[in-house]
From TrEMBL, chain A:
Family the entry assigns: Belongs to the complex I subunit 4 family.
Membrane topology: Multi-pass membrane protein
EC number: 1.6.5.-
Family matches, as Pfam families: Proton_antipo_M
Annotated organism of origin: Streptomyces actuosus
Domain (NADH:quinone oxidoreductase/Mrp antiporter transmembrane): residue spans on this chain: 125-425
Signal peptide location: none
Name assigned to this protein: NADH-quinone oxidoreductase subunit M
GO molecular function, one term: oxidoreductase activity
Top-rank taxon, per record: Bacteria
Compartment annotation: Endomembrane system; Membrane
InterPro entries reported for this sequence: NADH_Q_OxRdtase_chainM/4, NADH_UbQ_OxRdtase, ND/Mrp_TM
Residues spanning the membrane: 6-23, 30-50, 70-96, 108-126, 132-150, 162-184, 204-220, 240-261, 273-294, 301-322, 342-360, 381-403, 418-437
Principal location: membrane
UniProtKB/TrEMBL annotation, chain B:
Keyword Transmembrane: yes
Swiss-Prot/TrEMBL keywords: Membrane, Transmembrane, Transmembrane helix
Transmembrane segments: 6-23, 30-51, 71-92, 104-122, 128-146, 167-184, 196-221, 233-252, 264-282, 289-311, 317-340, 352-371, 391-409, 445-464, 484-502, 604-622
Subcellular location: Endomembrane system; Membrane
InterPro entries: ND/Mrp_TM (IPR001750), NU5C-like (IPR003945)
The protein's name: NADH-quinone oxidoreductase subunit L
PANTHER family: NADH-UBIQUINONE OXIDOREDUCTASE CHAIN 5
Broad class of where this protein is predominantly found: membrane
Membrane topology recorded in Swiss-Prot or TrEMBL: Multi-pass membrane protein
Residue stretches making up the NADH:quinone oxidoreductase/Mrp antiporter transmembrane domain: 122-392
Length: 501, 623
């Protein structure tokens, strides 16, 4: 079942490639939408049959490279199931958003179908090498999306930077995986076995180096300060659909790696270096928010807020490794908050990036100064962006608050000063979103000269549907979060227990 | 039991969300629908106040979203729902067809609904959710006329200021969990052990002072005046600013447990009542005067909460809610009719529209603390609580009461003077006035005015004892008769000279007058101390990010390219050159070896002879 969910998009991609080129552009996108919808429906079935207290479920194992201890092993638990669902939903949203795409549609659709398999596969992988393969392939897929469908020559440079930077990160990750493999007896890359054995327990410096390699690899992908500078150009020059996937799904691969690999496999080192993780998280929170505040380009600003939002996740997972002065409730609250934040950020920032795509489509620029009083011309676009901005700045009623409240409340006991500093991030985020909203959407109407005299059109249906759907789900989580937390909490408790052993 | 409680919050929240989303489709019926939802909410609120329901639902691990109506909440839900109903009934006649009434009425209901959740929440997470949602809707309401310059900025200032203070509640939640109060129930917070107790208290107090526009956060209230008048009427009376006072009244056991918190809160309230009262005196804009007076009057509630006078603070809150909402409705009615809120231009406005004028006068005299109106009695309850804490507090409170009389009388004096020769000259400074009072104005205005006048009965011995029992504060001191007489005397003694002095400039140095006029320059100070440094830091960090962090990455890439070029040179000029040298040497060797191969026999014989001779020579030499 899980393998079907994972490889269905790739299968569709293969069929599209084999089929002749006679289909009209729109047909490709419609096939894509159908495939994504079926995939999402399958995930809903998985979710319905998921036993919240039952640990890892829907497991599948197959021999792959037994001589090297590599197997095909997939399964989902409360940490990965929400992210699998998020992935399928975001790809469906992006598919609907891409209905009007007209540049090399067949390749575009195939690339995104490939990316969906890769992303889903990463979240269900329970083998380090399988994880690594998907991790690397996601970089390859996104490289072509940015280079092929981004904004001109600069996009190719940004894509190259993105590829090389994150590829270096993935090499560090591979180094760490090999370190884990060598320490295990018998040698294996299986995450479940490694979690049970915790082979590096009590191996001070060696374990520290392995954690460093894994940590740097994941930190580049997340990204955290100071490894974040590939993110703004990649986002700014990527097409809206690519940005939404990059921020909504690909960034989660880094933070998911922390909760799936770094914490349960290296609990001792994680606890020892928890302070370093917390510091990186807090610096990402405050630095990301402040740098975002100074941006003059709306999309670049949203990109930097991703650094800020991922910083909360890093802070929480670091605090979950700090045992002193805290109890199990606080630690599992922090972990639950971190996973909720991944889902929440995917929904909200995904919607925000789709909306910036609308902005670029209408005005041809992301410069905040180029617009004023847009709400007069495009009330629905303005309303959607305002809602997304408020959701992103963590107003209760949206998923962001549910995540951030748990993170702050769970982290404060063990890391009081750090959490108190991180709290200022939410006020800076509020300031930057309100300032941008005010400058672009409110006040006297003034449009950039690039907009035709006929005026500016409000959200089309294919633009409104995905963004409103994403924001609606963020609202549902914000108002009635239990259905999501019921899935995450047991896994969060388990993880907090694994780290504390 | 719990159904009525869920209904109480879902009516305004759900109805508000529906109106905000779908309002533009049926603009004509929106005001009636909005007022109807508010009235239904009032009915449910009254029922809830009688039946005292409780409800809860799971929220986070170990923390529930709890709601309950106890004595204090019963008073609050009725007050909030009643004021909301009156304000929405008034607002039905305020908007033109061009305005998006669905957005206005929907947001107003959401705003009031958030306040209802705030006053019924029994756990900190739910309280914080409602608290912040209220702030967000206040942003949308203050910036309602977003096309006009400055409105959106005012909304930003209000939201960012209150949210900065709200961080205190996040801090308090984390500290409560750290202190082992896993349920985050409000009534369990005082059981926390130091030092977490101090963190909880500091966080709660900061959030409450920010929301209530107490010193040093008061400036946002001045900016909030840019919103429509009904928004001011609701925001300044039963919601938003009242939320801070409510929180302190709700958590006064926490203030009592933390030794330093009570005096800190009490003195902040007393000083705000005094200082913002002086600010109110200096204003020449009616809405600004009323805004500053709100901060000052809320100061009395904060003073009560800090002095342990829960019943006194609640009485003051309810009486002030009725008074201030009626005052803002009057100001709003004049603004709509005459297009101005400048006090000099409003000369004689009460004579022109006598009904509104009468309501305004009664409410302003209530605000002045004149007997036998409600705030006179309520304030004496507060002052009695303050006197139990210390004479200093009592004296400052009494001084603040005198200032209240001065600013109230100032406003009354302007609007009740005879109309000037050419009143039209000063009108229409803000908007184009309609020169009429809408038919929807008098009923809610008169209702609120009536309440403002008579709510003082709550301070009579019988009702006061009932209220204290209701709030579980039976042992609270009440005012002695001499205190009532003294405060009435002070109010009258301040009101008389203020009337006589009239519009002449105040006998104080220019700098002090300008400071009072400019709200003590609090916003400028916040700009200088917080906003500009943060913006500067942000810009510096952005440059740092581009030049240094990303610069390092670019340098690494350049370093990689340079290393590659060096390797190419090494490869081409070193290794490959050596290979080429060897091959060319081999080639020249071959060339030399080819030279003797001529194909001529005599030359071969000659070569053989030479070689033979050399061989002989070598043998001879070696032997």
């Amino acid at each position: 079942m899980l393998s079907v969910v994972t490889f269905l998009p790739l299968l569709v991609c293969a069929v599209l490639l084999i089929l002749s080129r006679v289909l009209p552009d729109r047909a490709y996108v419609l096939i894509w939408i159908t495939a994504a919808a079926v995939d999402l429906a399958l995930v809903v079935v998985l979710w319905a049959g998921f036993d919240t207290g039952g640990g890892t479920q829907y497991e599948q194992r197959a021999r792959w490279i037994p001589s090297a201890g590599v197997g095909y092993h997939v399964g989902v638990d409360g940490l990965s199931l929400p992210l699998v669902a998020l992935t399928c939903l975001l790809f469906l949203a992006v598919a609907v958003y891409s209905l009007r795409e007209h540049r090399r549609v067949r390749s575009y659709v195939c690339l995104f179908l490939f990316l969906q398999t890769v992303s889903t596969g990463l979240f269900v992988a329970l083998d380090l090498i399988l994880f690594f393969v998907f991790f690397d392939l996601s970089i390859v897929g996104m490289f072509f999306v940015i280079a092929g469908w981004g904004h001109g020559e600069r996009a190719r440079a940004a894509a190259l930077k993105f590829f090389l930077y994150t590829f270096v990160g993935s090499l560090a990750l591979l180094l760490g995986f090999i370190g884990l493999y060598l320490a295990a007896d018998p040698h294996t890359f299986d995450i479940t076995d490694l979690t049970r054995a915790a082979p590096l327990a009590g191996r001070g410096a060696y374990a520290g180096l392995v954690l460093l390699a894994v940590g740097v690899g994941l930190a580049v992908k997340t990204p955290t300060v100071p490894f974040h500078t590939w993110l703004p150009p990649a986002h700014t020059d990527a097409p809206a659909a690519g940005s939404a996937i990059l921020a909504g799904v690909l960034l989660k691969m880094g933070t998911y790696g922390f909760v799936r690999i770094a914490m349960p496999l290296l609990p001792g080192s994680w606890r020892r270096y928890a302070l370093a993780v917390v510091v990186v998280g807090v610096v990402s929170v405050v630095y990301g928010a402040l740098v975002a505040l100074a941006q003059t380009d709306f999309k670049r600003m949203v990109a930097y807020t991703s650094v800020n939002h991922m910083g909360y996740v890093v802070l929480a997972v670091g605090a979950a490794g700090s045992l002193a002065g805290t109890d199990a409730q606080a630690r599992s609250l922090a972990v639950t908050g971190a996973v909720t934040q991944m889902v929440s950020h995917g929904l909200i920032t995904g919607a925000l990036f789709l909306l910036t795509g609308v902005l670029y489509d209408r005005g041809g620029t992301y410069a905040i100064d180029a617009y004023s009083g847009l709400a007069a011309h495009t009330p629905r676009f303005a309303a959607a962006t305002a809602v997304a901005a408020f959701a992103s700045l963590g107003i209760p009623g949206f998923s962001g608050f549910i995540a951030e409240f748990q993170i702050f409340t769970g982290s404060l006991a063990s890391r009081t000063t750090a959490t108190a500093i991180a709290l200022t991030g939410i006020i800076v985020t509020a300031a930057l979103f309100l300032t941008a909203l005010r400058r672009m959407f409110l006040g006297a109407a003034r449009l950039p000269p690039t907009i035709p005299a006929a005026g500016i059109t409000d959200l089309h249906r294919h633009e409104a549907l995905p963004t409103v759907a994403l924001l609606a789900l963020a609202t549902v989580i914000g108002v009635v979060p239990r259905w999501l937390l019921d899935v995450i909490e047991p896994a969060g408790r388990t993880l907090a227990g694994l780290v504390a052993r | 039991m719990s159904a009525s409680l869920w209904l109480l919050i879902s009516l305004p929240l759900g109805g508000g969300a529906l109106l905000a989303l779908n309002g533009p489709r049926f603009p004509r019926t929106v005001p009636a629908l909005g007022a109807a939802v508010a009235a239904a909410t009032l009915g449910v609120a009254v029922a809830a106040a009688v039946t005292r329901p409780t409800a809860s639902a799971p929220l986070f691990a170990g923390m529930r979203a709890g709601l309950a109506v106890d004595g204090l909440s019963a008073v609050m839900v009725v007050t909030v729902a009643a004021v909301t109903t009156c304000v929405l009934a008034f607002a039905a006649g305020e908007f033109t067809a061009d305005d998006n009434r669905g957005r206005f009425f929907g947001l107003m209901l959401l705003f009031a609904g958030a306040m209802l959740v705030t006053v019924t929440a029994t756990t900190l997470p739910l309280l914080l959710m409602a608290w912040e949602a209220m702030g967000a809707t206040s942003w949308a309401l203050i910036g309602y006329w977003w096309r006009r310059p400055g409105r959106a900025e005012a909304a930003d200032v209000a939201f960012l200021t209150t949210r900065t203070a709200d961080l205190g509640l996040y801090l308090a939640a984390g500290a409560a969990l750290a202190a082992g109060i896993g349920s985050l129930r409000l009534d369990a917070l005082p059981h926390a052990a130091p030092p977490w107790l101090y963190v909880i208290t500091a966080g709660v107090v900061t959030a409450a002072l920010g929301k209530s526009a107490q010193l040093p956060f008061s400036f946002w209230l001045s900016r909030a005046m840019q919103g429509p008048s009904p928004v001011s009427a609701l925001l300044h009376s039963a919601t938003m600013v009242a939320a801070g006072a409510y929180l302190l009244l709700r958590l006064h056991p926490l203030l009592a447990t933390t030794v330093w918190a009570g005096p800190l809160v009490a003195w902040t309230g007393a000083l705000t009542a005094l200082a913002l009262g002086v600010v109110a005196v200096a204003q020449t804009d009616l809405k600004q005067l009323l805004a500053a007076s709100t901060a000052a009057q809320i100061g009395f509630m904060v003073l009560a909460a800090g002095s342990g006078g829960a019943a006194a603070g609640t009485t003051q809150l309810v009486a002030h809610a009725a008074t201030k909402s009626a005052l803002f409705l009057s100001a709003g009615a004049w603004l709509t009719a005459l297009g101005t809120k400048r006090l000099p231009a409003l000369r004689g406005a009460a004579r022109r529209y006598r009904l509104v004028g009468a309501a305004f006068t009664v409410c302003a005299l209530t605000l002045a603390g004149l007997p036998p109106l409600s705030l006179w009695a309520a304030k004496d309850e507060v002052l009695a609580a303050a006197r139990a804490e210390g004479t200093g507090l009592y004296a400052v409170g009494l001084a603040a009461a005198a200032v209240a009389a001065v600013y109230s009388v100032k406003a009354v004096r302007y609007v009740t003077r005879p109309l000037p020769e050419d009143p039209e000259h000063g009108y229409d400074t803000e908007q184009h006035g309609t020169r009429r009072i809408a038919p929807t104005t008098p009923p809610p205005l008169l209702l609120l005015t009536f309440a403002a006048a008579v709510l003082g009965v709550l301070a009579l011995p019988g009702p006061a004892a009932w209220l204290k029992r209701l709030l579980g504060a039976a042992g609270e001191p009440g005012p002695r008769p001499w205190e009532l007489v003294l405060s009435a005397g002070v109010a009258l003694a301040a009101a008389g000279p203020a009337w006589w002095w009239g519009a002449r400039p105040a006998p104080v140095p220019g700098a002090a007058a300008r400071a009072a006029q400019g709200w003590l320059h609090l916003e400028r100070a916040a700009q200088a101390v917080v906003v500009r440094p943060v913006l500067g830091l942000a810009r510096a960090l952005a440059v740092f990010d581009d030049r240094v962090v990303d610069g390092a990455v670019r340098q690494t890439a350049r370093g990689g390219l340079a290393a590659a070029r060096f390797a190419r040179r090494l490869d081409d000029g070193g290794i490959d050159a050596a290979v080429r040298a060897i091959s060319s040497a081999a080639r020249s060797l071959g060339r030399w070896a080819r030279r003797p191969q001529t194909g001529l026999l005599h030359q071969y014989y000659a070569q053989a002879a030479v070689c033979f001779s050399v061989l002989v020579l070598i043998i001879l030499l070696v032997r």
